[in-house]
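Example record

The entry below shows one chain as it appears in the dataset: sequence first, then structure tokens.
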Amino acid sequence: MAIMLIMTGYADVPARLGESALSDGRWLGWAEWGPLDGVPVLLCPGAATSRWLGFGAGVVEALGVRLVSVDRPGLGVSTPVPGRTFSDFARDMRQLCVLRGLGDPVVVGNSQGAPFALACAAEGVASALAVVSGADEVAAPEFVSVLGADLRGLVERTACDPAGAEQFFAGFTADAMWDMVMAGSPGCDLAVYQDPDFAAGYRKALDEGFTQGAAGYARDTVLAMGRWPFALDDITVPVDIWYGAQDTSHSPDNGALLAARTPGAQHQMASRRMV
């Protein structure tokens, strides 16, 4: 679930850190790496993590990329929005692109950030999209017969009682998230997660993600685990969907159905899980 592509290093401290005021008075927290005049790439980070965790050290600078990671509402320093939707998030990102001069950025969605990135693409807030180890639409009817009992129970609970499910997820903590990720990761990922440098950065991102409590994570999770209200066939920009062969926690079929449902999507498989 951590935010890493195939790369040679771990995440650097952000080059720029700030908050932008939206038109309704809310604040949206963001972090940036790379040159200000670089190619804009907007990152929707994974479950319960904050703006602090980006791509590998030195990669965006070498590529001339301006990477912008955002705290979703209720996580990190971004103002909470009870009952928010995917469309609300896409509108926030459209405003942020204007406020930060990002134009039409490439959008990257990792883990639970994937459906939020897909929503941005569906609503025209992207010039291209990359889904990396993305949380799939597990509530899709095609997956009913292949989900494990625990996950199927959570999906059914979310569908039947979204408010109750949100209250359940609001009981999570940064420590609980860390334990869940460690328990569900193969050995190749644990070698990264347990590296002292990466572990410190990831724990910092989790701790900051829960600064305002777990309500932001809970809302994200109910949205991600329910039926997605946007149409994947509305996406007209180039899409790359990346999964690792050892990834058993993000998608029941490593993104094959997701790629088939998204027009023109390129489905990329790595020999190992992409952390």
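Notes for this example: Residues 75 and 209 are 5 Å apart (CA to CA). The chain has one domain: 16-270.
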